UniProtKB/TrEMBL annotation:
Acts as a processive, ATP-dependent zinc metallopeptidase for both cytoplasmic and membrane proteins. Plays a role in the quality control of integral membrane proteins. Binds 1 zinc ion per subunit. The keyword Signal does not apply. This is ATP-dependent zinc metalloprotease FtsH. It is found in: Cell membrane; Membrane. Coiled coil: none annotated. Signal peptide: none annotated. Its EC number is 3.4.24.-. It comes from Caldisalinibacter kiritimatiensis. One of its GO terms (cellular component) is cytoplasm. HAMAP family: FtsH (MF_01458). CDD domains: RecA-like_FtsH. Its cofactor is Zn(2+).
Length: 520
């Protein structure tokens, strides 16, 4: 816009100047006699050139039309990339329940005539929701591969534009392309970017894009075998109009894999890697409780990288253990400058965690280390014996006590506390808050308190949280005081070797069996 104004101003100045020069030929009183015919011709030519350039600027589409005019070209380029994928359900490890549910949709696309005879219609949309890295995109590609359908991938952010109408036009273009290339799968990743809840105060571009998506999903030709698959980590943010039957008919939760699924995923990601005979995939699956499919793939890749770094011909169990620690605790710091006093405190802190965990029999302790990783000066590596889906009140209280074991050890052995328990206290507070506000495990009774109502009862909630944490801390102090000898020996071992494995830890606990039993 500024460019046009400057050109127009120059054009006007030149026009006035040219007019005065021409006038000076007929009115000698004007002082342009010194200019010859060539000068007048040149200035006139410049004026005409500016005028033509201004006209072109005026006719040239700006910003929004330019963005819209390039959509067709972008779609053509995308069509070259969005070929029919060669991925099938054989490439998707675990997620057996989800695959079984999707078989119905696949059969509908492949053998639609038997469903049409019964008057059944194909589900218009499937919504995958769950934590990141659990295989939602891979599942969508597998559905396209199983049905030999065109796979059209889009991210929710691609439809979000500053200019009104651009996002809606992109939605229309996407669905037009899907209709031309049916059967097709439209996959919209991170759909919450355009599908978030609307309110009465907003009428922005995102709302117009969502409206267009709702219209397109409602207006499918019933003869077209087109399915929209959406993926999101935040189901609670999506608009109700998008979630209703007739748009996204099926909602499927894709969660983190269980131990059996983790074993299958690890087998898929290690099938092209040279593994040492010392590796037991089932044991690694047990150690990776709570990991997503993406994290498991990353662990397998990290183990291979570590093996190459150590110039090995095969990946052994030590490489996998290092990869798990790398993913859980962070990057190991080389030549850390930790003071001996701080190292001593960290050793007792981590020994406190391990001892309380052993006394209360909370999870299997695999390793204790005081080698700094990431922002942590030390850590305890522990894994559950089995996958758990329910936790009792006592188990939650035991978890709190284990987290408080480090702080209690500092207080008992050094008569002071440090900032090293920052992360522990944060986790303790979160568990206690969920017990009070979500699980009904406090004196407030069997009630659930939503986040928006917490502010109205903050004093009562804080008192309940403090009561839970303080009671646990008093019990932990007793455990620490009764087992000072075992904590001291673990700390001394850590100061000498920096790392203590499960076997050495069990031997120390065996020596001090009696104090552990009395504490329990």
């Amino acid at each position: 816009m500024l460019k046009k104004k400057i050109i127009f101003l120059l054009f006007i100045i030149n026009l006035i100047f040219t007019s005065l020069m021409i006038s000076s030929r007929f009115f000698p009183a004007l002082s342009f006699k010194a200019l010859n015919t060539g000068d007048i011709f040149f200035i006139t030519l410049v004026t005409i050139g500016l005028f033509i350039y201004y006209i072109k600027l005026d006719n040239n589409p700006q910003l929004v039309p330019a963005a819209i005019s390039t959509e067709k070209k972008k779609n053509e380029e995308k069509s070259k990339e969005n070929n029919k994928p060669d991925i099938s359900f054989d490439d998707v490890a675990g997620l057996d329940e989800i695959k079984e549910e999707l078989q119905e949709i696949i059969d509908f696309i492949n053998h639609s005539e038997k469903y049409l005879k019964m008057g059944a219609t194909i589900p218009k949309g499937v919504l995958f929701h769950g934590p990141p890295g659990t295989g939602k995109t891979l599942l969508a590609k597998a559905v396209a591969g199983e049905t030999n359908s065109t796979f059209l991938y889009s991210s929710g952010s691609e439809f979000v534009e500053k200019y009104v109408g651009v996002g809606a036009k992109r939605i229309r273009n996407l669905f037009e392309k899907a209709k031309k290339e049916a059967p097709s799968i439209i996959f919209i990743d991170e759909i919450d970017a355009i599908g978030s809840k609307r309110n009465s105060d907003s009428n922005n571009e995102k709302d117009q894009t969502l409206n267009q998506l709702l219209v397109e999903m409602d207006g499918f030709n019933k003869n077209n075998t087109i399915i929209v698959i959406g993926a999101t980590n935040r189901l609670d943010l999506l608009d109700e109009a998008l979630l209703r039957p007739g748009r996204f008919d099926r909602h499927m939760y894709v969660g983190n894999p269980n131990v059996k699924a983790r074993e299958e995923i690890l087998k898929v990601h290690t099938k092209n890697k040279p593994l040492d005979s010392s590796i037991d995939i089932k044991d690694i699956a047990k150690k990776t409780h709570g990991f997503s499919g993406a994290q498991l793939a990353n662990i397998a890749n990290e183990a291979a990288i570590i093996a190459v770094r150590k110039e090995k011909s095969k990946i052994d169990i030590n490489d996998f253990n290092s990869a798990i620690e790398r993913c859980i605790a962070g990057l190991e710091l080389k030549n850390p400058s930790v003071l001996l006093k701080e190292k001593n405190i960290v050793a007792h802190h981590e020994a406190g965690h391990a001892t309380v965990g052993k006394v209360l029999n909370v999870e299997m302790i695999q390793k204790i280390s005081i080698v700094p990783r990431g922002q942590a000066l030390g850590y305890v590596l522990k894994f559950p014996d089995e996958d758990r889906y329910l936790q009792t009140k006592e188990e939650l209280l035991s978890k709190i006590k284990v987290f408080l074991g480090g702080r209690a050890a500092e207080q008992v052995f050094f008569n002071e506390v440090t900032t090293g328990a920052k992360d522990d206290i944060k986790k303790v507070t979160q568990i206690a808050k969920e017990m009070v506000c979500s699980y009904g495990m406090s004196a407030l009774g069997n009630i659930s308190i939503n986040d928006q109502y917490i502010q109205y009862s903050i004093d009562k909630i804080e008192n309940e949280i403090k009561k839970i944490v303080d009671t646990c801390y008093e019990e932990v102090l007793i455990i620490i005081k009764e087992n000072q000898a075992v904590i001291s020996e673990i700390a001394d071992y850590l100061l000498e070797h920096e790392v203590i494995e499960k076997e050495e830890l069990d031997l120390i606990f065996e020596k001090y069996k009696f104090p552990l039993e009395t504490a329990n």
